[in-house]
Structures are given as structure tokens and as C-alpha cells.
Structures
1.
Amino acid sequence: MIWLVEGIFLITLAGVPGLFCSREGRGAERLACFLTLAGTACGLAAVSLALLHGGEVLLDLPWSLPGGRLALRLDPLAAIFLLPLFLVVACGSIYGLRYWPQQEHPDNGRKLRLFYGLISGAMILLLTAQNSVLFLMGWEVMALSGYFLITTEDHKADVRQAGFIYLIATHTGTLALFATFALLSQSSGSLMFPAAGSLPVAGSSLIFLFALFGFGMKAGLIPLHVWLPGAHAAAPSHASALLSGVMIKTGIYGLVRLTSMFAEIPPWWGWTILLLGGISGILGVALALAQHDIKRLLAYHSVENIGIIALGLGLALLGRSYHLPELVALGLAGCLLHVANHGLFKSILFLSAGSMIHAVGSREIDHYGGLLKRQPWTGILFLGGAVAISGLPPFNGFISEWLIYLGAFLPLRETSSMLVLAVLAAPALALIGGLALACFVKVFGISFLGEPRSAAAAAAHEAPAAMLIPTGMLLLVCVWIGLLPTTLTPLLNQAVAHWSVASEAGLATQVLVSLGWVSGCGWLLLLLVAVLSLWIFSRSRKVPREIGTWGCGYQFPQPRMQYTASSFAEFLVRLFRFSLWSERHGGKVGGLFPATTEFSSHTPDLVLDRLLTPAFRAVAWFFKIIRTSIQNGILALYLLYVALTVFTLLAFFAY
Amino acid sequence: MFGNLVLHLAILLIFAPLLLGIITKTKAWFAGRIGAPLLQTYYDLARLWRKGFVFSRTTTWVFLLGPVIGLAVPLLASLLIPFGALPAPISFEGDLILFVYLFGLSRFFTAAAALDTGSSFEGMGAVREVTFSCLAEPTMLFALLVLTRLSGGLSLDTLFGEHLISSWQSEAGASLGLIMVCLFVVLLLECSRIPFDDPNTHLELTMVHEVMVLDHSGPAFGMILYGAVLKMMVLGALLVRLAIPWNTGWWLSDAALFLAGLCVLAVIIGVVESIMARLRLPRVPQVLIGTSLLSIFALVLVLR
């Protein structure tokens, strides 16, 4: 346990020495990176020691604050959330050395590193906290450091706005969490977390609803995702990777941990989460398709993946309600593995998107093009991440989605219960997968393939090794999980057993055997592709590439004539127009010799821009009316109010 | 096991190009022509094999990865499905998901290879391919759900087992009929046949698959062609097994029955191509959503 505490201290304080160093010096950032790496090494040591020694270590100290003891516990459930956290934090901090060097960003480099360390340390603390107060402290430090990470470039107006929306959202969520933990302590009698499966179900509905709101806000379940796209787009890329890959998972952790405390789970909990997961998944990916800012697009994909994770969690909860241990195991294993997987491939995508932004100087996908020739390594890394996030074999995304699919097929065995409706999760997941594939074909194809669409893209340069190597390490872990999934099953089994309070719960042997087959098929696929590629590449090696793409007879093709990100998504966006309501401006041509015309399309956020902003604007308008007509600063009117009140009171008492 | 694998691959690799020949012959017969010889696809493949490559200067290695994965995926996927009564060489619980997602992988790289040329023409094809396929994906899953419910297993080998005979005779027969229609639509779409796509005209603005592979040449184009016929055979095998669920007990007659079924399927595709016109593009999603509704209906029937 001492390792974990050391790790927390080292990571949290990594940015502090930098505060005392000069604004232009290089030493402080290297020191911060070193401290972070040392801290993650300590943390990894703590997790592996805990897993080797039966899966659980405890730190329990007396505490002078009211509300229980200072208790930290490292159990398999926390370990699954901690492992990707350590990886992403370490890789992001190396990446930051070249992506956000102090010399190029003297104004905000120190701030970025300070809060990068703080948020990482706070997340480790809250993932291991066994006390509500400690958990909420970690939660608040994480939320506030998140705000400062998002507003790193606070001289930009849109960054400040994204920060404000995030701050409002996260504090609304925290408010709900205060209520959750207050009710929880009433139910269990202390502020310490109750043991798994110990709470009675009576009076739990309100706890669940508050927790769903608070944790769902952090996780970004639709319709609570309003803060997410803007915030992840505004932060520097390695901070976005941390926020999107790891921070939003603390919401999922909260839900998983909270539901593990109850002895019985009412069926409606599972149904609610399953439904929210389906909606978030489908709408999240549809909204992502409609974006042309690469970081906003990736942020919406986080909403989608949170939806997939919620589908798994919903199935697991239904398994608890209907007493199907197999469904619990498959749903929860899929959910937890997808948490780790999404942390890995989303970080790859954000980090390589950072390299692209660094090279081209724009976040617009339509300003890229042909980057694969200029950034070959970034291209390979991005392609790996894109295939993984689309859930395609032989990468890790497929393994977790495969587990959730198996879970979704299980209720088919039921003969006469509502549970059979849960099979609808499978086609929903298929639709999400198909749309995600379309979206990543679009991003990869438009940015990396074809001809450069701007002068900056034509002059782009490859990212330095300090940015490529950490991203590559994350990709290696993705490939490892995809090709050798059985190495992770013991950990998943321990977590499932921990969550569902059944000592021998876990994935059935049949599933494990099948996982072995899946990995075998993955290897076979790689082998086939390798043999065929070797043959065709060696045969075509000497062929010159000196002619242009055939333009169907047209002699003067230009890069501007290529398909753009918007035109690629147009077909699907139009199919989803009932929920997206994209805005289209211009594009009408008239006459035999039409003049120059412009066309632009834009898809605002469904909840924020369509619902919340108009609603709050109406409220503001109402208050403005009140202010101008009633409380407008004219003294005579105020005197009139006083007189009227006196008259009313007199009249009242006269009767 | 090993013999089974060899037999499986031999049937697939040898007979797949024949299907295209039968379709073309049927269409020619309907039009009152003699048509290309039955073995034309084999000649085409041999011709493409000998040819050289032509590459645009825009393209990268992704351009060649498209054909490679387009050929590797149907090869691997064919090992997961039974060919008629011949059991699948690789079978495990949950292989149906792998089967569906493998085709997703090939779609990803085919579309990426199309975008690699930088031609807006191929961009159009890529968009249509990914759009239509993602609409067909739920249909496929609903069909698999129906079959899983009827068989109780989760491997394609169990799904297409002998119990289908009794299922056809029971109340579930109606559902099986519906999902056969759905799978046929998916087959026509995935193999880019009329009414979703017209494989004959390369240069119409309405094409899907053919424009995506417009810039490929020589052996790479041969790989695409071969991959496409393998895919048709693999998807067709599902339909054939659904329609002919009997086991004869002797591998030679099983194989013959399976191949006869495939030939009939090819003739049916040819007939559909001859008597139907290609759908207008905005109609295609409507047809696909309609098919999804049919498959949902089939699922409701068996869940009742």
C-alpha cells in the first residue's frame, strides 16, 4: 500500500517544482515528467502486488476530520480502472514534453503541468477511497483541475466558454453526489463505504437516481453530455486524452461501485441504464459523424463509447435482478474491459490528433488530406486507433464488444419474462458499430489519404519521437489485448466476483475457450494479411507512381474536388435528420452560368444548443423583463412599492 | 479436421468464380443473348494475374491493403460457416459476431483504399458502401437472433444445424421464411447486385462497389474480384443451408447438394437482376429499413 500512497504523492506534486522555476527553462518539465513516471511506476507496482496477493490491500488510518477513517482500498474493481489510468498518464506526460514545451508556452505550461498532476493524483485517490468524504474530496479536486486543464488557453473566448459550461455541469453533478452520499450514509449508518452486497434495497431508488445524475453527468451519458464536446475540444491534446480516456470513466466507476453495495438490484435500474446506453451510443456516434472538428468528433465518440459501456453495465445489472450469473459475468466483464480499451484507443486517437494539429495548425478535418505521406508513423498509429475504436478484429475493441454481444444474446434462452427484450442491445450495438466504422473511415480517409487540402497540410512534418513513442506504446497494449485476451480474464473474473458478491462468479469456461479461439482467429487473420501483403507489395514494388488519379476524362482535377468530411457524412446525417437537425446555409445555384456560391453545414449539439441554451435564454429574458419593469433603479417606483405595501397591509388589518 | 479444412477451402476456392458465370449466363439467357462463357470469371482472373500494376501518384500503401483484406476476410470467414451439411472447420461459441465484424474490417479497408485515390468519384462509392452496410447490419443481427433462439447455441455451426428441418415444420417456419428474404436482401446488397448496385456499369454516378475499385489494376484488381466472389459464396452458403437443411450422411453427396443449392441461388440472383431495375439511391435506405422491420417481425414471431 505504501507504493500506492507514494505514487499518489509523486504524481500529484509532479507539477509543483515547476512553479519555482523560470518561465522559459526546460528543467522543470523534465523533472515533472520524471516524477510522473516514477509515480506511475510506484502505482503499477502497487496494483501488481495487490493482484498477486489475493487482489486486495487496505490502508486504514485514523482521521481527525469528522466522518470515519482515512481508508484506501485497492481491489480488482479499482485495479481495472487504475491500470489504463497509469498508462495514459505516463504516456501523456512524455508526449507533453514535445507537444506543449515550456519554451513555446511560457504563459500556461506550468499551469498545465501542475493541474495534469493534480487531476491524475485525485483520480487515483477517488478510485481507491473507501470513505465518502475522501471520495468527494478527490472528486472535487479532479473536477476543478479538469476545469484548469480545459482552460489552459484561456485567452481564447471559446475555450473560456467551454470551461464555464464544464464548471456548471460538473458542479450540478457534484450537488447530486452530495445528496447520494448523504442518503447512503443514512442507509448504512456511517460515511464509510459499506461492504459489497450489504445494503438493503429499501429506500435505494432515490440514491440510485441521484447517483445516475451525478455520475452520468461526469460520464457523459446523453442527455447529460452537454459539457463534453466543447471541453474535450478545448483542452491540449494530451489533456484531452486524459479527460476523455480516463476522467469520464470515474463516472462509470461511481455507478459500478455504488451498485455493488446493494444486496438486490431492482430491475428498473438495469433497464434505465440499458436504455440510456443505447441512446447515448446511437446518438453519440450520429453526432460524431456530423462533426468536422477532429477533437469535437473524438469527444462525441466518447459519448458513444460510454453508451457501449453502459449497455454492458445495464446487462450486468439485469443479470443481478433476474439472478443470471452468466449474464452478470459477460455484461460486467464487457463493460470493464471496454472501460480500459476505450481509455487506450481514445488516448491514441487524441494523441495522434494532437500530432496532426501540431503539424497543420488546424482542427478542421477538411484542412488536412494526404497526411499519410507526410506523417507516416502518426498515420499508422491513428489507423490502429481507428480500427480499434470501430470494434473490428483483431484489436481490443472487438474483444469487449464481443463479450457484451454474448451477454445480449443470453436472454434469448428465457422463455417468458420481460428480460427477453434485452436482446435489442445486440442490434443497437451493431448499428453503433456500423456508424462508428463509417465515421472513422471518414476521419482517416479525409485526413490521411488523398491530396493535401491546404498549403499547411502539404507542408506538414512528422511528429518527433517523443510524441510518437508513447502513442505507439498505447497501440501495443491495444494489440496485446486484442490478440491475447485470455491474459486479462483472471483480473476480469476477480472483479466480477467482487462486484456480484458471488465467490465463484466469473466468465464460464466455455467463454474462455471461445476467447482463445477469437485470439486464434486474430492471429490467423494477421498471418493471412501478412502473406498476401508480402506477395502483392513485393510484386508491385518497382511500379512507378507517376500518373494522376483517373478523373473520368477530366484533365484538370484539383485537391478541392475531393470528397470532404461534410460530403462524406451527408448521406448518413440526412438519414438521422430527425434527431440531428443539421443547419445548412447556401448551396443553391441558379441559371445557366451560375455565379460563385457558398455552402456550409453545421450540426449544433442536440441538448446544449437546442434545449438548454434556448431555455436558459428564455429564463434570462424573463428576469431581464422583471428587472427593467420592477427593479429598475428608479427611486420613485421603489417609494411607490413601499406606499403600496403599507396600503395593502393597512387594508388587510382594517378588515 | 484437416480433411474437412482442405475440402472446405477447395470447394470455396474452386467453385466460387463459377457463381458469377451462372449469373451472367442467366442474364444473357433472359436477354436472348448467348452471353459470356460460364468460365469467364476464371479467364478474367487469369488475365488479371498476368497483368502489371498502374498506380496513381496520390496513392499510398493503404491502396493495396484494401484488396489484401478484401481477400483475406472472406477466406477466414468461410472457415466459420458450414457449407451445407459439411461442418465449419472452426467453430466456437460466439463466432457469429466475429463473422459479422470480419466483414466490417474488409469494408473499412475497401472504403479507405477508395479514398486513397483522392478522386471524388470513389469518395461517393465509399460513402454509399459504408452507409448502406451500416443500415444492413441490424438486419443481419436480427436474423442471427432468430436463429439463435431456434437453435439455442451461439456458434454458426449450431445455428445452421439439422434442427432447422423441425423448425421449418413448426410455427417458426414463418420466421425462417422472413429471415431468408432478409438475408437475400443483405446478400444482394453486400455483393453489390441489382437492385442496390449495378455491377455492369463502371461509370454511372449511381454505382457503389464498382466505382470504389475503379483505380485498381492487375493482380490487385484480381484480388478484389476474387474476394468479391468468395464473399458471395460465403453469404450465399448461409441462405443455401437455411433452404436445404438436410444431411445426406456422405460428404460427396453433401457437397454436391450444397453446390447445387448455390447454383440455384445464382440463377435466382440472375433472374432478379434481369427482371428488376436498379433502385433510385434515396430508395435504398428505405428498402433496407423495411428489411430491418421484416427481421424484427420475424424475431417477434419466435419470441412470442
Note: Chain A has 26 helices and four strands.
2.
Amino acid sequence: MSRQIPFDPGAYAKAMADALGLPLLPDYAPAVEANLAVAFRLAPLFLDFPLADDAEPAPVFQATESEP
Amino acid sequence: MSNWTHAPAHRIATAISAGDVTARTVVEQHLSAVSIRNGALNAYTDVTADRARAAADAVDLLRAQGQLLPPLAGVPFAVKNLFDVEGLVTRAGSKINRSNAPAADDATAVKRMEAAGAVLLGCLNMGEYAYDFTGRNAHDGNSLNPHDITRMTGGSSGGSGGAVAAGLAAIALGSDTNGSIRVPASLCGLFGLKPTYGALSRGGTFPFVASLDHVGPLARSVLDLALTYDAMRGTDPRDPACSGGSLAPISPLVSRDIEGLRVATADEYFARTGSPEVFAAVAAVASALGAMQSVTIPEAHRARAAAFTITMIEGSALHIDRIRDRAHDFDPEVRDRLIAGAMLPGQWYVQAQKFRRWYRTEVLKLFDCVDAILAPATPTSAPEVSQQTFVLDGQELPVRPSLGLFTQPISFIGLPVVTVPVWPAKGMPVGVQIIAAPGREDIALRIAHDLERRGIVRAPVAKH
């Protein structure tokens, strides 16, 4: 079982909306909070999966343009 | 006179090349069908009738001159409205993009289809900005399933599914970030090809999640998928992710015997959280192929979670200015997911991309032992158009994100997939994914073709 991240979606959404200048109108808030709740429920599934410090993210930057 | 709106693309092209019918006749039949049926189905948002007639006449002129016709000569096709079409505004399912200037050029895929002789009929409805599995759209109306208009097409390439299932195009191009070709193919009873990530150019398409976006075809025959894939191949400076790869055509390979190919069924994650008809469809395909073995795709639930998170964050990053400036002009079902995505930590994104590499390494090991893996395409057949939840394994789940439960862990690592339509004795179709190793579209297509040849899977035009 993955851990659950302690989370108050209403408080989090308001703080982030204020900090980032996002529109969080009263009729948007319930669905935004519901979507955040899903994201916070799913995220521990990969956040808690053990990976080495040198694990490379999937997209790899290339310094040169590949030949078309 | 024959009704060519029910014919697969390869048969249309063969008939036109043989002089059995003109491209103009085929196009007029399709335009007539669109004018009659589109009001009920909401598949097309733009019809390019003048362009189609001119292109059809050009094909007929080539034949009259005795020239060899290209492989898709006179085949009517249409594109999800996130593909640029010169002179039309690229809506990407949105209201906001309608403020943009019309496209100055065609998408690469459109150009390549036309170079292969195909005739563009227009642009197709889709879920807003492709963030959708339902085919619902608050601005253009919902795409409706031609096999039962009380049910959804699936999305986000909803109009693509509806048009091909209704005989309003022989081929439709769609895009697939997490399942947006495979879900409508499943719910509309069609063949769909999500190619290897990077195999086909996305040049001139409106993006969603750059690290997950693919383009590909939906059609009513496997050979049509292969012909379309061949037509669209090649590197493209307009798409940095497009590797091109081998240009050897795969359409001549699809009818090869599948003897010796090792096929297994995905178990665990892919054998639960679905309705019985879905697993019956997978079992029917496995039985027909003599696929007795099962394999476990490791940590698929984590892969789905990571793909879900990458999608939220990249999608929100793409639309952040539109969210700030024009939030009220979004489809509410999309807007609220994007706002939430803009609030997620950057660390999550990096960790999800690291997990993605680990997961790819582990999944690719499976292909040492098997050539293809079977899995359901969707957890149910087509839900009702406005349905918000369904109950699977005793859990009430939201329809919109959950329709991609089985597609998301596969596109996450860019594997090629052919979705094949299975019809129960009674009721709506459902798709089965045939998943192959990267670059092995030919294997998935060969298996799909074998199933089609034996009548195990089929994609008829809807009765109306």
C-alpha cells in the first residue's frame, strides 16, 4: 500500500490559486478540488516507488538536432 | 449504383484504379451521406466539399491520362479538428482557438495522405484540447455513436470514430495521448492504430502532452490502417519527436501467416476493473489465436498514475495563459482538470518521468518471450452519452478519466497498438488491444488481419 498524502484540497487549491494567479471561482472550486484529490490519491503510487538517484527521466535532451 | 460509403478504403482505391467507379462519384456519395447524417451524429465540424471535389477530379484526370494511381487514390478521409487544414481555423475542440487565424498550411499528415491520393472531406469533432475520453464537447455538441445515438463515441477523437462507423469517411485521422484513438475505436466498433511514439509526424497538429502525443488512423479494415500508416511515414522537421525509422511499407506484410507468433494475454491489472463483456472479448480473441499464456505487465497501476500526472502537468502548462485569461471559455469538464494540474508540484513530474523509464525497461523484457500482448481497450462498451459514473468491480468510478484505464499504461511508453472490434451476440462492440514491441506495428497488424480474415473481429458501417 502506498501512503496517503495528508491533504486539504480546499485550502491547497485556494493557496495555489492565490500564489499562481489562477482563477478559482466559486463554481469552479468543487471540481478543481475533486481533481486535486484524485491526483493526490494517485501520486504516491509512483512517488513512493524506489528508484536510484541516477535514474534518468524518460525524455533525454540531445544537444544537436537530429537529422530530418 | 454501388454504395461506396460502406466500402473499406483499399477496395475504393482498387475500384477507382480499375475504372469501376470515379473518385468524383465516391466523393459525392460521401458528401451526400455527410449532409444527411451529420446533423444527427455531430461527427464533422467543417466540410471541405470544394477541396474534395477538386482533389477527386485530379485523381480521375490522372487515370484518364493513363497514369498509375497512388495507393489511396480517391479514398475519402477526414481529420480530427486539431490537424491544420489550410484556410480553416484549427479548433482543437475549443471555443478559444476560434479566435486564431486560419491555418496557413496543412498538417504533415494531411499532406502525406493527399500525396497518397486520399481526398480530404473535412474536420471532425473532438473533446476540447483532446483532454477527454468521452467525445463530449460543450461547444460543438457531443459526438454520438452511430451504432446507438444514445451512447457516446468515446474520445477524444470522437468525431473520427463516429464518421468512420457511420460511413461518412473511409479513414479518419485521430490523435492518442492516453487512448484517444483506441477508446473511440473500441466504443464505435472500429480498427484503430496507435503507432509507436515518434513513428508518425505530429507536424501541424495542435498539441496536448508533447511527451505522450501520437497521431494515427481509425478505419473499417486492417489493411486500411496499414496503407494509411505507410502513407504517413517519414521524418519531419516540424516534429522533433518524429524518428521516422524504416520507410519499408508494412501493408504488404499484413496478410502474412501468423504461425509462430507468440501471443499472450495481460493479466492482473488488465483482468479486473472491467465489465464481463470486455473480458469475454479478450478471451474470444485469445482463444481464436490459441493464446493460452498470460503475462503480467509490471506495475501497470503505477504507470497509469504517472501518465495521469504527466498529462495534468504538461496539459496545464500548455494552457496556463488561456486558463488565466479565458477560463470561462473552456469546456468546464476540461477547465477544472487543467486548473488542478497547474497546482501540482514539479517534483511529481520529474519522478513520473523517471518511473516511466524504469517501467519501459521492465515491460520491454516481456517481448523477449512474446511477440504481442492482448488487453482490453476500454473497461466497458459505450456508456450513455451523459453518463458520469459507472460501477466496476463494486467501485463507482468517474467515466471520463476511467475509460482510459487500460490504454494509458501502454501509450505511456509509446508501444504500438492495434485495437480490434469484437461484437457480442447482442449489444454494442468493444475493442481489444493488440500490443507489440516498439517499431513492430507489422506484428500487431498481422494478428489483427488474421482475426479479421476469420471473422473474429469486424467493423461494419452502422445501420440507420
Note: Chain B touches chain A at residues 211, 235-237, 240, 243, 299, 301-302, 304-306, 308-309, 312, 323-324, 327, 332, 335-337, 339-344, 348, 350-358, 360, 401, 413 (CB under 8 Å).
3.
Amino acid sequence: MKNLIFAEVYKLFKQGKTYYALGAIFLIEIIILFSAYSQGQDALDMILDNLKQSFYFEGNLLNGNLLSYLILNTLWFHLPLILIVIISGTLTSEYKDRTLLSVMLQPVAKWKFILSKYIVAILFTFLIVLFLAVTTFILAYSIFGDGDLIVYLNGLSFFESSDAFNRILWAFGFGAISMIFFSVVSLTLAVILEEPTKTWIAGAFFLIISNLLAKVNFKNYLLDNWLYVKLNDTWQYLFHFNIPWNKIYLNTTVLSLYTIVTVFIGVIIFTKKDVG
Amino acid sequence: MMTRLFILICYFGICHLNAQNIDKDLLEVQHRLDTIQSFSALVELNVDISFINIPVKHAKIEYTKNEETKVFSEDFVLIPKKGLDVSLYQLFKNPFITVDRGTALRHNKTYKALNIIPTNRKADFSIATVLIDTFTNRIVEYEINTKKDGSYLVSMQYTNDISLLPISIEVKFEIERVRIPLKYMGRDADIDKDSYKSEEVKTGTIHIGFNYTEILYFH
């Protein structure tokens, strides 16, 4: 099993797509930083327009914390999309190149093979989120410095610099759990669909549907609280003025269970499937 | 001879009327405040607005006579446009007349009520109502109607009967709800239609505590 995991890690870092993904993430960060640099103050002025009648402002809100928060919001769509493409590609490319057949001719248990892919997918997702977090903090703080963070979540919230940094750090951590769910789903889709294009389309469709459903109010306790789409934005709770930690822990536990179930389904399907 | 006498009577009459236009208790308050040459203080700002969450903020203020109060802070702070001026420089900096409005009751105490009406177009307010404690010669409350920034109700608390500057103030003002363009909203930011329709203007309050580090008086 350990050797299989090492082999999967080797394959992942050997393929060009992995580096394209890292490059794409870095490029997205640069674009967000550039647009914030050019339009950020106008956006802040617009948000704070009503407050200007009653207040003078002292201090700078266009700072590294705000930029980090903006980049953190790529967890909604950009980052999971990149992960879906890369992670599903680790299996679909093996189907396409028929290397999977060669591997299966070896004395390797199918469930161990696919499980090692899931484990590497999870590790890679953690690595990508860590890469995003580290590059975000380095770029955002070195260019814009630190300062209070302003967030709009059913009202305006202001967080002091050190508090904002901690919240963003935790948000990256809990955001990684959401990203792992998408990675695991994309790999399961690859198990089912096998073909790269079909899997990417299905993965992107799954992501779009998830984003759309997240805004829907089902007026049903179970769906509104425990449907996976309602758990994927748990990292946003870190930006409530009083952090609902219990809700965060519960959501994360349930989402982790969904992830484990998805892995289990993927392993079962792959094991029962005729690879040839 | 009669014409000269008439002009003289008119001149003194007008001068006398002008002198009567400023209440003597307010002049006494102004005279006391005029003895302050400068002061600096550490302030604690506690914003209480339903749709704004902001921790208690700290700043430093510096006042020098005949100048606007300066605010310094390393954090981001929301500074109310009225109220922080505890020397009441903005209230008295332009010529004004006063109108006696009788008395007003606050916390079982009776205070003298006056309207301050600026006679100079440069003034940024159209009318202010002040409550004067004639025993301590201090203003305990004033409501100022500005020309551009709405109205503010400022209540001042003092440590003892001889303090000239307040230890804490409370500033109340009307504020519109913040309207965020959809593109800047997070996914969790739901629009509460009812509150948008029925409560467009809200009342905000800021509690400001002062810790004076230096007060210089004219001798």
C-alpha cells in the first residue's frame, strides 16, 4: 500500500498538469491582487458610502487581510474546478493511456490501487490549499501590508489585524476539507465515467450545481442543514463576528462522513468494474 | 440735533439687542472652555449600530485652541463627525445668536435649554439645541442639525462638578443601512427584504470614553 501511494505521488508530480494547476492558481492570485490594486479602493468607497455621512475613517482597509480574504473566496469555484480537472485526470489519463491495464496485470489489489489514488488526491488537495495560503499571505502582506479586515456577511463586520489573520488561516484549514470533498467526488466520477472529457464536464457540472443549490432555501430542516452543498461553505462561518465553533465542528464532521462515503462508493465501483 | 439723537438711540439700541442675543450662561460656558489651550487624550470608541460589528477601538486625540481636533490611530476607526469635539470648538467658531427655550428635564435634573443659530453661512450646522447645567456651567447635552451630515445628539458625562471636559460622551445619529452591490456580496450574505423596506434609516450610537493625558489652560 505504501509503495502504491509513493508510486501515485511520483506519477502526480511527473505529469505536467500538476504544474499547470499550480501556475493557474498563482496566476489567479496575481489577477485578484492586480484588480484589487486598481479597483479595490473604489469598491471599498462604494461599500462604505452610507457610513461616510456619519463618520470619518482613520486607517487603511485595502490591506493584506482583505486581499487574502478575496483570494480565499476562490474556494467557491476556481480552486475546486482546478482540483476536479487535476484529480480526475490522475485516473482518466490511466484509462486513456491504458497504463491501468498494465498495473492491473501486476499482483496489485484493485481496492488498494484505487484507495491509494484517493489518499494521494487528499494529500495533493491539502498541498494545493497550503500552496494557495502561503503564496496568498506572502503576496498580500508584502504588497498591501496588514490592517483591519472588513467583511460583509448580513452586515458589516470589522476584524482587527491579528484576529483577521487567525480567521483567514482557520478558513483555509476548514476550506481544505471542502476542497477534499470535491477532489474525492471528481475521482469517483472518473471511476464511473473513465473518459477524461466526460469526467471534466460532469465534475464542472457538479460544481456549478453545488454552487447554485447552496443559495437555495429548501424550507426543509434536513436539506437546509445537512445536504452537502450546505456544508461546503462552512469556512465562511469563520467570518461571523462571533464564530459558531460548534456548528463548524459539526458541519466538518458530517462533510468528512460524506467524503468517506464517496471514497467507499468509488472503491466498491472500481473493485467490481472490469478494467479491461 | 433730533436726527443725531435718533441715530444715537438707534445705534445703542441695536448694540444692546445684539448683546442680548447670546445667553449669558452660554457665554459663561464658552468663557470656561476658552481657558483650554490644548489637550490630548486616549479615547475608547464603542460603536453600537445594528448592522455593523466592530470591536472596541482605541485612538489618540489632540486638540489645540482654534483648530480642529486631530485623531491618530494605528487601527481602522470610525470617527463620528460630531461629538469628538469636546471643546465645542465647532459649535462656537462662527458668530451665532441664541434663543431661550426654557428648561428640559434629564435624569430628574432640570437644565436650561437654548437654541444656537449661526449667523454666518460658513457654519456647517443650521441650528443646535444645548442643555446647560447652570450650576456647573457646563453643557450636558446638545443636538446639532448639520447642513450635510444629518443630526447628532451628544450627551456628555463628567467625573465631578468641577471637571471642564467630559469623561465620556454618547453620540446618537441616524444612519442608512449599508447597501452592498451584489458583486461584492459573499454567498452567505442574504438580503433581508423586510428590513430593507421597513428600516432603511436606523439609529446608531457611539460611546466614547476619554482618558486625558494632558490638559493645558491659559492663565
Note: The CA atoms of residues 44 and 128 of chain A lie 30 Å apart.
